[in-house]
Amino acid sequence: MIKTMFNKILLSMKSRYNYDVRYMQDILNADLMAFLKLMGCQIMSSHTGSLPTGPLFAARLRAIIWDDCGPCTQLVVNMALEANIEPRIVRAIVDRDLAQLPADIALVVEFTERVLAHDPHANELRKKVVSLWGRKGLIAIGYSISSSRVYPALKYTLGYGDACHKVNVHDLSLVPRRYSDAHQS
User: Fold this and answer.
1) 135 is in which domain, residue-wise?
2) Residue 172 in 3-state DSSP?
3) Is residue 33 packed enough to be buried (19+ CB in 10 Å), middle (13-18) or exposed (0-12)?
4) Tag placement on the chain: N or C end, fewer CB within 10 Å?
5) 0.90 exceeded by pTM
6) Cα angle vertex 46, ends 139, 130, to 5°?
7) How many structural domains are present in the chain?
8) Are residues 30 and 104 in the same domain?
């Protein structure tokens, strides 16, 4: 009964976002407790703290792009658009085009990638993040980064990893630009 209810929720997600939920269905069918723990990650990923929507999705998108350039990235793009983030802003986040972003979103893009790269420059940016949104905002960014990375890792572990492909933002098809691409000499 409970598995049927959760499967209906997954099918609704599949329909709403055109997202392949088979890996979650496999977890649900194989191990209900494991599935419930995955849902705990959903709770973590939904935490916003005092962070505005734009910076929140900047952290989520850049973190997911770090580990995925396929369906998970497209899912977060779709969620950002659904949250009324302007398509030009979503495109600039995916393209890592800092010059086209408002300063607060550009800060989060840069901070997220420095954190993921374990770059010491993240310390300077962290102070700016805290000055804008306090510790609550910093925690929300940390949760966004951490929870976004769970899904690609889990999908690849279970054999559902997808080869890189373009991401669609409304009428434009993009190849996500990675931090390492932007910093190569």
Assistant:
1) 47-182
2) strand
3) exposed
4) C
5) no
6) 20
7) 2
8) no
